[in-house]
Amino acid sequence: MLKKSFATVIGLAAAVSFLFSACDRKKLNIQSTIYVDDERDGAKIILGFSQIGTESSWRTENTRSVFEAAAEQGIQVLYDDAQQKQTNQLKAIRSFIVYRVDVIAFVPIVEDGWDNVLREAKEARIPVIVVDRKIKTQDESLYAGFIGEDGIEEGRKAARFLLQKYSDSTKKLNVLELRGTDYSSMAKERSAGFREVLLQDPRFCIVKSVSGDFLRSRGKEIISNIFAKEGSLSWENSSLDIIFSHNDAMSLGALDTLQLYGVNAGRDVTIVSIDGEKDAVAALREGKINCIVECNPRLGPELIKLVKTAANRNTIPRVTYVDGRVYSENDDFSLTQAVGF
Ligand code: GYE
User: Fold this and answer.
1) Domain with CATH 3.40.50.2300 in the chain
2) Among the four residues 4, 83, 121, 155, which has the most C-beta atoms within 10 Å?
3) Tens digit of pLDDT for each residue in 96-111?
4) Where in the cell is it found (predicted)?
């Protein structure tokens, strides 16, 4: 089948921002370079990759990992950064279909609303791989498979750390939850897994749960608002003992404000986070964060294996999970390899 030139497609869909030439590894700076490749190399697999944005270091590392793995395997990437908007993702995926890429991979910012575009991809016989976050669909055959993390298990791990940390305590323990993006599978799963394990123990009570959209700025703001309203780190006159944050970016934002108000983070309030980015790992070592449930953003090599399989019209596993460790104040840091990304 004759494939269209990128120049044609760009006229049809401005959403596609970037074509990456896999053979030129020196140009791995994905933030600032725009590639337009009119000479399509028919032998190469072309992957259309729709990423949700750059909301955290996790996300930036995730994108980098996909590009690096694609470059290593000689796969061209047609890339779009959706800047946190589902409508941009839908446009990008439609552009990939027009361009007739070999495989589409996308990170769904929210769970719902994908069936129509996936039906279009299926009609065009383009396999789709769902990356990192899950979707809800009426028809599971609309995508080839999912690769990512098990958010429920991550939430459970965070709760297990707390049960263990407070195993000798008799007091009531109030938790503030900083949730990720509303309607995203990741925020839902992390909340669900956390509650499933934590609330078996009646001492724990989640007194407040707010969405911080996985953003550092929001983590900062949420804690500032609490101080503005309550005058201390408390909610409706009960002090907050624990902050469970769905990602490091929000935890680091929370730390910024706590420091401003002279709260001794890690001691006066226990902080449990998810991801494992460098700055958070440093805060863990300094005792300001008590536990980090690792979530590995480096999905690139596994994803690219799946892309090659799907491009050759072979079946890929329905679900490929990537596992992570738990880093905590109980570790001997001279022994752990916790460095972060
Ligand atoms: O934890 C967060 C990011 O979906 C696993 O999204 C991902 C989350 C990650 O922005 O930092």
Assistant:
1) 5-149+297-322, 151-295
2) 155
3) 999 999 999 999 999 9
4) Cell envelope
Q: Which residues contact 238 (CB under 8 A, 6 or more apart)?
A: 174, 207
Residues near ligand 1 with C-beta < 6 Å?
55-56, 58-59, 132-133, 149, 186, 214, 247, 249, 274-275, 295
Ligand 1 pocket test, pick from 56, 273, 323 with the greatest ligand atom count within 8 Å of Cβ, gives 56
pLDDT tens-digit map of 260-292: 999 999 999 999 999 999 999 999 999 999 999
pTM of the model: 0.90
- How far is the centre of ligand 1, averaged over its atoms, from the C-alpha of 247 (Å)? 6
Ligand 1 centroid – CA 40 distance (Å): 33
CATH classification (class only), 5-149+297-322 = alpha beta
* Domain 151-295: CATH architecture, name and number where available: 3-Layer(aba) Sandwich (3.40)
Q: Which atom in ligand 1 lies closest to the alpha carbon of residue 58?
A: 11
